[in-house]
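Input structure tokens:
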């Protein structure tokens, strides 16, 4: 069974707005590129999908935009080429190597997890909350930014039940960012 990994940037006070942390640097982009490489497919809600598409879809010209540095291109290529699944009740169709997930969320994600492969990656805020509530996330990767945002959406706000996690890996970046990898602990009675 493929593991479902939730990876997100988060500030020290729990904010997970994409602009709340430090601007990406070469080291963090290498990390995120490696995360993309560990995934057979990406799972996004509509809002995250549209945000990622607007930033990382290869332009029709085939040339990456001038604002993109050479160190950002490997990530851009990885996410652009990745298979994507989009969960949405509002979108009527998607492209960018994507398809809509239809029907019951839990059942649809369980089917994806049962396919062979290295793993699935989920990003965003709302969809991961629903998946965590369903107990479907196998690994949490929090890229902790040394920033206090003071506002914005917070990580897994509204989670129905507490999920106990076990730290399985830690990576520190020169910028002060720390990538913390956790797995849920299974409670045995």
């Amino acid at each position: 069974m493929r593991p479902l990994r939730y990876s997100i940037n988060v500030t020290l006070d729990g904010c997970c707005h994409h602009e709340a942390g430090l601007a990406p640097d070469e080291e963090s982009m290498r990390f995120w590129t490696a995360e993309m490489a560990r995934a057979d497919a990406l799972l996004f809600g509509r809002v995250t999908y549209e945000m990622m598409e607007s930033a990382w879809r290869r332009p029709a010209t085939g040339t990456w935009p001038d604002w993109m540095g050479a160190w950002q291109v490997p990530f851009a290529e990885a996410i652009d080429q990745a298979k994507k699944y989009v969960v949405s009740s509002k979108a009527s169709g998607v492209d960018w190597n994507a398809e809509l997930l239809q029907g019951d969320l839990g059942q649809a994600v369980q089917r994806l997890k049962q396919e062979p492969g290295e793993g699935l990656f989920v990003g965003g805020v709302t969809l991961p909350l629903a998946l965590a509530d369903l107990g479907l996330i196998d690994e949490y990767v929090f890229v902790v930014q040394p920033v206090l945002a003071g506002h914005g959406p917070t990580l897994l706000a509204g989670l129905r039940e507490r999920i106990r996690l076990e730290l399985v890996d830690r990576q520190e970046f020169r910028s002060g960012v720390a990538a913390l990898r956790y797995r849920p602990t299974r409670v045995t009675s």
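Helices lie at 26-37, 46-56, 73-81, 105-114, 126-133. Residues 26-37 form the longest helix (12 residues).
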